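Look over this record as teaching material.
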Amino acid sequence: MSESQVTDGATDVFMDHRELLFSLVYNMLGSVADTEDVLQDTWLSWSARGTDGIAHPRAYLVRIAVNHALQRQATISRRRETYVGPWLPEPLVADEETPDDPALRTESVSLAMLVVLESLTPLERAVFVLNEVFGYPHTEIADIVDRKPSAVRQLAHRARTHVHARRPLYQAHPRVRREATERFVRAALGGDIGELMEILAPDVTVWSDGGGKRRATGLRPVHGRDKVVRLISSFTTRRDRPHLDLSYRRVNGDDAAVLFEGDSPYAVMVMDLTPEGDRVSGVYIVTNPDKLTHVHRETQDPEEAE
Protein backbone atom coordinates (compact mmCIF):
# COMPACT_ATOMS: atom_id res chain seq x y z
CA MET A 1 0.00 0.00 0.00
CA SER A 2 1.39 3.39 -0.98
CA GLU A 3 1.96 6.25 1.47
CA SER A 4 -0.83 8.27 -0.15
CA GLN A 5 -3.26 5.36 0.29
CA VAL A 6 -2.31 5.10 3.97
CA THR A 7 -2.85 8.84 4.40
CA ASP A 8 -6.20 8.69 2.62
CA GLY A 9 -7.27 5.79 4.80
CA ALA A 10 -6.32 7.64 7.98
CA THR A 11 -8.16 10.72 6.77
CA ASP A 12 -11.32 8.74 6.03
CA VAL A 13 -11.32 7.15 9.48
CA PHE A 14 -10.74 10.50 11.16
CA MET A 15 -13.53 12.20 9.22
CA ASP A 16 -15.91 9.36 10.05
CA HIS A 17 -15.41 10.20 13.74
CA ARG A 18 -14.99 13.97 13.54
CA GLU A 19 -18.56 14.78 14.58
CA LEU A 20 -18.19 12.66 17.73
CA LEU A 21 -14.79 14.16 18.55
CA PHE A 22 -16.03 17.72 18.05
CA SER A 23 -19.02 17.25 20.37
CA LEU A 24 -16.94 15.52 23.02
CA VAL A 25 -14.14 18.10 23.07
CA TYR A 26 -16.50 21.08 22.84
CA ASN A 27 -18.42 19.84 25.88
CA MET A 28 -15.11 19.59 27.73
CA LEU A 29 -13.84 23.05 26.74
CA GLY A 30 -16.85 25.23 25.85
CA SER A 31 -14.93 26.92 23.03
CA VAL A 32 -15.25 26.29 19.30
CA ALA A 33 -11.82 27.74 18.52
CA ASP A 34 -10.07 25.62 21.15
CA THR A 35 -12.03 22.57 20.02
CA GLU A 36 -10.85 23.06 16.45
CA ASP A 37 -7.25 23.38 17.69
CA VAL A 38 -7.60 20.15 19.69
CA LEU A 39 -9.03 18.35 16.66
CA GLN A 40 -6.06 19.55 14.60
CA ASP A 41 -3.67 18.19 17.25
CA THR A 42 -5.65 14.95 17.31
CA TRP A 43 -5.41 14.64 13.54
CA LEU A 44 -1.65 15.22 13.62
CA SER A 45 -1.18 12.56 16.30
CA TRP A 46 -3.46 10.17 14.45
CA SER A 47 -1.90 10.64 11.01
CA ALA A 48 1.62 10.32 12.41
CA ARG A 49 0.71 7.04 14.11
CA GLY A 50 -1.10 5.48 11.16
CA THR A 51 -3.90 2.93 11.32
CA ASP A 52 -1.80 -0.25 11.30
CA GLY A 53 -2.41 -2.44 14.31
CA ILE A 54 -5.29 -0.33 15.66
CA ALA A 55 -8.24 -2.65 16.15
CA HIS A 56 -10.63 0.00 17.47
CA PRO A 57 -9.98 3.38 15.76
CA ARG A 58 -12.92 5.09 17.52
CA ALA A 59 -11.59 4.27 20.99
CA TYR A 60 -8.08 5.30 19.96
CA LEU A 61 -9.22 8.64 18.53
CA VAL A 62 -11.37 9.42 21.56
CA ARG A 63 -8.42 8.77 23.86
CA ILE A 64 -6.15 11.06 21.84
CA ALA A 65 -8.77 13.84 21.67
CA VAL A 66 -9.64 13.70 25.38
CA ASN A 67 -6.02 13.87 26.45
CA HIS A 68 -5.26 16.73 24.07
CA ALA A 69 -8.32 18.53 25.48
CA LEU A 70 -7.09 18.00 29.05
CA GLN A 71 -3.73 19.50 28.07
CA ARG A 72 -5.52 22.43 26.42
CA GLN A 73 -7.28 23.25 29.69
CA ALA A 74 -4.05 24.73 31.09
CA THR A 75 -3.93 27.28 28.26
CA ILE A 76 -7.61 28.12 28.72
CA SER A 77 -7.16 28.57 32.48
CA ARG A 78 -4.33 31.05 31.96
CA ARG A 79 -6.44 32.98 29.45
CA ARG A 80 -9.33 33.20 31.92
CA GLU A 81 -7.10 34.84 34.55
CA THR A 82 -7.01 38.05 32.50
CA TYR A 83 -10.52 37.82 31.03
CA VAL A 84 -12.68 40.92 31.60
CA GLY A 85 -16.04 40.19 33.22
CA PRO A 86 -17.96 36.90 33.41
CA TRP A 87 -16.86 34.12 31.08
CA LEU A 88 -19.51 32.14 29.22
CA PRO A 89 -19.07 29.24 26.81
CA GLU A 90 -19.00 30.00 23.11
CA PRO A 91 -22.54 29.33 21.83
CA LEU A 92 -23.23 26.85 19.05
CA VAL A 93 -25.81 28.62 16.89
CA ALA A 94 -27.73 26.77 14.18
CA ASP A 95 -28.21 28.51 10.86
CA GLU A 96 -31.77 28.83 9.56
CA GLU A 97 -30.76 26.88 6.47
CA THR A 98 -29.15 24.04 8.46
CA PRO A 99 -31.11 23.64 11.73
CA ASP A 100 -29.97 20.01 11.95
CA ASP A 101 -26.27 20.87 12.00
CA PRO A 102 -24.48 17.75 13.33
CA ALA A 103 -22.60 19.85 15.89
CA LEU A 104 -25.94 20.80 17.46
CA ARG A 105 -27.33 17.33 18.02
CA THR A 106 -28.23 15.92 21.42
CA GLU A 107 -24.60 15.35 22.40
CA SER A 108 -24.12 19.11 22.77
CA VAL A 109 -25.42 20.01 26.22
CA SER A 110 -27.22 23.27 26.94
CA LEU A 111 -25.37 26.50 27.54
CA ALA A 112 -26.65 26.56 31.13
CA MET A 113 -25.24 23.07 31.72
CA LEU A 114 -21.89 24.10 30.23
CA VAL A 115 -21.76 26.94 32.76
CA VAL A 116 -22.23 24.41 35.57
CA LEU A 117 -19.53 22.15 34.11
CA GLU A 118 -17.09 25.06 34.37
CA SER A 119 -17.10 24.54 38.16
CA LEU A 120 -15.66 21.01 37.84
CA THR A 121 -11.99 20.14 37.64
CA PRO A 122 -10.84 19.29 34.09
CA LEU A 123 -10.65 15.56 34.91
CA GLU A 124 -14.05 15.56 36.63
CA ARG A 125 -15.53 17.31 33.61
CA ALA A 126 -13.97 14.82 31.20
CA VAL A 127 -15.35 11.89 33.19
CA PHE A 128 -18.80 13.51 33.48
CA VAL A 129 -19.01 14.25 29.75
CA LEU A 130 -17.85 10.77 28.77
CA ASN A 131 -20.17 9.02 31.23
CA GLU A 132 -23.29 11.21 31.48
CA VAL A 133 -23.40 12.71 27.99
CA PHE A 134 -21.88 9.96 25.81
CA GLY A 135 -22.64 6.90 27.92
CA TYR A 136 -19.14 5.50 28.27
CA PRO A 137 -18.83 2.96 31.11
CA HIS A 138 -16.31 3.60 33.87
CA THR A 139 -13.99 0.84 32.68
CA GLU A 140 -13.63 2.40 29.22
CA ILE A 141 -13.19 5.88 30.70
CA ALA A 142 -10.39 4.50 32.89
CA ASP A 143 -8.50 3.45 29.74
CA ILE A 144 -9.12 6.83 28.09
CA VAL A 145 -7.87 8.99 30.99
CA ASP A 146 -5.30 6.46 32.25
CA ARG A 147 -6.83 6.01 35.72
CA LYS A 148 -8.04 3.01 37.68
CA PRO A 149 -11.77 2.21 37.36
CA SER A 150 -12.22 2.84 41.10
CA ALA A 151 -10.75 6.34 40.72
CA VAL A 152 -13.01 7.04 37.75
CA ARG A 153 -16.07 5.96 39.74
CA GLN A 154 -15.12 8.39 42.50
CA LEU A 155 -14.59 11.20 39.99
CA ALA A 156 -17.92 10.42 38.34
CA HIS A 157 -19.74 10.41 41.68
CA ARG A 158 -18.26 13.76 42.75
CA ALA A 159 -19.01 15.37 39.40
CA ARG A 160 -22.56 14.02 39.21
CA THR A 161 -23.37 15.09 42.77
CA HIS A 162 -22.00 18.58 42.16
CA VAL A 163 -23.78 19.05 38.83
CA HIS A 164 -27.16 17.76 40.00
CA ALA A 165 -27.01 19.96 43.10
CA ARG A 166 -26.57 23.05 40.95
CA ARG A 167 -28.77 21.98 38.06
CA PRO A 168 -31.77 19.75 38.85
CA LEU A 169 -32.69 17.12 36.29
CA TYR A 170 -35.41 19.10 34.54
CA GLN A 171 -35.92 20.02 30.92
CA ALA A 172 -38.70 22.35 29.84
CA HIS A 173 -40.84 21.29 26.91
CA PRO A 174 -39.51 22.94 23.70
CA ARG A 175 -42.81 24.76 23.13
CA VAL A 176 -42.78 26.15 26.69
CA ARG A 177 -39.17 27.24 26.31
CA ARG A 178 -39.89 28.94 22.99
CA GLU A 179 -42.90 30.82 24.40
CA ALA A 180 -40.99 31.97 27.50
CA THR A 181 -38.01 33.03 25.37
CA GLU A 182 -40.17 35.08 23.01
CA ARG A 183 -42.10 36.65 25.87
CA PHE A 184 -38.93 37.70 27.66
CA VAL A 185 -37.26 39.09 24.54
CA ARG A 186 -40.33 41.13 23.57
CA ALA A 187 -40.53 42.61 27.07
CA ALA A 188 -36.79 43.27 27.33
CA LEU A 189 -36.33 44.92 23.94
CA GLY A 190 -39.65 46.75 24.21
CA GLY A 191 -38.86 48.12 27.66
CA ASP A 192 -42.05 46.64 29.15
CA ILE A 193 -41.16 46.71 32.85
CA GLY A 194 -44.49 45.26 33.98
CA GLU A 195 -44.11 42.26 31.69
CA LEU A 196 -40.50 41.78 32.78
CA MET A 197 -41.54 41.70 36.43
CA GLU A 198 -44.01 38.94 35.59
CA ILE A 199 -41.75 36.75 33.47
CA LEU A 200 -38.60 37.03 35.63
CA ALA A 201 -38.20 34.83 38.72
CA PRO A 202 -37.44 36.75 41.95
CA ASP A 203 -33.94 35.23 42.14
CA VAL A 204 -33.13 35.58 38.45
CA THR A 205 -29.47 36.04 37.47
CA VAL A 206 -28.04 37.61 34.31
CA TRP A 207 -24.57 36.67 33.07
CA SER A 208 -23.27 38.99 30.36
CA ASP A 209 -20.06 38.07 28.57
CA GLY A 210 -18.60 40.85 26.45
CA GLY A 211 -14.95 40.22 27.21
CA GLY A 212 -14.53 43.95 27.81
CA LYS A 213 -15.40 44.64 24.17
CA ARG A 214 -19.02 45.78 24.54
CA ARG A 215 -20.03 48.90 26.46
CA ALA A 216 -23.32 47.54 27.83
CA THR A 217 -21.75 44.45 29.39
CA GLY A 218 -21.59 44.17 33.18
CA LEU A 219 -18.40 43.09 34.87
CA ARG A 220 -20.25 40.83 37.31
CA PRO A 221 -23.38 38.66 37.23
CA VAL A 222 -26.50 40.60 38.23
CA HIS A 223 -28.74 38.88 40.79
CA GLY A 224 -32.36 39.61 41.69
CA ARG A 225 -35.37 40.70 39.64
CA ASP A 226 -35.23 44.41 40.52
CA LYS A 227 -31.56 44.73 39.61
CA VAL A 228 -32.05 42.78 36.40
CA VAL A 229 -34.95 45.00 35.33
CA ARG A 230 -32.83 48.10 35.98
CA LEU A 231 -29.99 46.60 33.95
CA ILE A 232 -32.27 45.88 31.00
CA SER A 233 -33.94 49.29 31.23
CA SER A 234 -30.57 51.05 31.22
CA PHE A 235 -29.83 49.44 27.87
CA THR A 236 -33.21 49.96 26.22
CA THR A 237 -33.30 53.66 27.17
CA ARG A 238 -29.78 54.47 25.95
CA ARG A 239 -29.71 57.23 23.36
CA ASP A 240 -26.91 55.52 21.49
CA ARG A 241 -28.59 52.12 21.58
CA PRO A 242 -27.78 50.33 18.31
CA HIS A 243 -30.53 49.34 15.90
CA LEU A 244 -30.85 45.59 16.29
CA ASP A 245 -32.64 42.89 14.33
CA LEU A 246 -33.92 39.77 16.04
CA SER A 247 -33.73 36.16 14.93
CA TYR A 248 -34.81 33.06 16.86
CA ARG A 249 -32.35 30.21 16.50
CA ARG A 250 -31.42 26.94 18.14
CA VAL A 251 -28.43 27.52 20.44
CA ASN A 252 -26.81 24.41 21.88
CA GLY A 253 -30.05 22.63 21.09
CA ASP A 254 -32.37 25.13 22.83
CA ASP A 255 -34.51 27.95 21.44
CA ALA A 256 -32.74 31.27 21.94
CA ALA A 257 -32.51 34.79 20.53
CA VAL A 258 -29.78 36.14 18.29
CA LEU A 259 -29.45 39.90 17.75
CA PHE A 260 -27.78 41.41 14.70
CA GLU A 261 -26.48 44.92 14.08
CA GLY A 262 -26.59 45.11 10.31
CA ASP A 263 -25.02 41.90 9.05
CA SER A 264 -22.88 41.43 12.16
CA PRO A 265 -23.93 39.36 15.19
CA TYR A 266 -24.39 41.57 18.23
CA ALA A 267 -25.54 39.16 20.96
CA VAL A 268 -26.78 35.66 21.68
CA MET A 269 -29.35 35.43 24.50
CA VAL A 270 -30.18 32.09 26.10
CA MET A 271 -32.85 31.81 28.78
CA ASP A 272 -32.97 29.27 31.60
CA LEU A 273 -36.40 28.51 33.10
CA THR A 274 -37.69 27.66 36.57
CA PRO A 275 -38.74 24.01 37.15
CA GLU A 276 -42.35 25.03 36.57
CA GLY A 277 -41.33 26.45 33.19
CA ASP A 278 -43.29 29.68 33.61
CA ARG A 279 -40.53 32.11 34.57
CA VAL A 280 -36.99 32.96 33.53
CA SER A 281 -34.47 32.04 36.22
CA GLY A 282 -31.29 32.80 34.28
CA VAL A 283 -30.25 34.83 31.25
CA TYR A 284 -26.95 34.16 29.47
CA ILE A 285 -25.91 36.94 27.11
CA VAL A 286 -22.83 36.53 24.91
CA THR A 287 -21.77 39.75 23.19
CA ASN A 288 -18.02 39.22 22.89
CA PRO A 289 -17.51 39.44 19.10
CA ASP A 290 -14.68 36.90 19.30
CA LYS A 291 -17.24 34.31 20.43
CA LEU A 292 -19.72 35.15 17.68
CA THR A 293 -17.53 34.65 14.62
CA HIS A 294 -19.40 31.45 13.74
CA VAL A 295 -22.81 33.19 13.84
CA HIS A 296 -24.19 34.24 10.47
CA ARG A 297 -27.31 36.12 9.48
CA GLU A 298 -29.74 34.08 7.42
CA THR A 299 -30.68 35.22 3.92
CA GLN A 300 -34.29 35.98 4.82
CA ASP A 301 -35.05 39.07 6.87
CA PRO A 302 -35.28 38.33 10.62
CA GLU A 303 -37.81 39.94 12.93
CA GLU A 304 -37.00 43.52 13.81
CA ALA A 305 -36.01 44.06 17.43
CA GLU A 306 -36.97 47.71 17.46
